[in-house]
Amino acid sequence: HIQWQTADSLHLVLFPLGPLTPSALMDVQDALTSLTFPPFSLQLHGIFHAFSSKNKRGMLWVEPVFSAALDKVQQQLHRLFPHWPQDGQAWPRVPHVLLGQGAPLDA
User: Fold this and answer.
1) Beta bridge partners of 51
2) C-alpha dihedral, 105 to 101 to 90 to 21, nearest 10°
3) ∠ at Cα 21 (94, 72), nearest 5°?
4) Residues 78 and 31 sit within 8 Å (Cβ to Cβ)
5) Which residues contact residue 103 at a Cβ distance below 8 angstroms, ignoring those fewer than 6 apart?
6) pTM of the model
7) C-alpha angle with apex 61: 21 to 72, nearest 5 degrees?
8) 2 vs 42, which has greater pLDDT?
9) Which of 18, 66, 78, 83 is the most exposed place for a label (fewest CB within 10 A)?
10) Average pLDDT for 16-28
């Protein structure tokens, strides 16, 4: 069974930070105020899946086609957060739009 994301909850994950303490979340929010970029369009491709042994759930996602505009945003994020993403995260380390989660796809 797959629990699909609702249309209003779809979003582009650019830089997974993982679980954050309330203090770290405030630091991230403050840092993000310096992030600026013009609007841009994305083309999405592929359907990918992975299984997290930590939470025993599968994930389905699509990825954006490379674009210079998206690359510039990611470069800004890497400068703001040089120590993330942290090792051991279950999320894909590439930009993606999560479509749904559920039991492993081969179950």
Assistant:
1) 58
2) -160
3) 30
4) no
5) 1, 2, 57, 58
6) 0.72
7) 70
8) 42
9) 83
10) 86
Distance between the two ends of the chain, CA-based, in angstroms? 9
Distance (Å, whole) CA 107 – CA 83: 35
Query: Where does residue 56 fall: left (phi above 0), alpha (psi -120 to 50 degrees), or beta otherwise?
Result: left
pLDDT in tens, 36-52: 999 999 999 999 887 77
Burial class (CB in 10 A: 0-12, 13-18, 19+), 59: buried
- Token representation of residue 98: 């999560």
Q: Which band of pLDDT confidence, cut at 50, 70 and 90, is reported for residue 10?
A: very high
**CA atoms in the 13 A half-sphere facing the CB of 101:** 12
Does the pLDDT at position 98 exceed 70? yes
Contact in structure between 25 and 63 (CB atoms under 8 Å) = no
For residue 98, which of 28, 48, 57 has the smallest C-alpha distance? 48
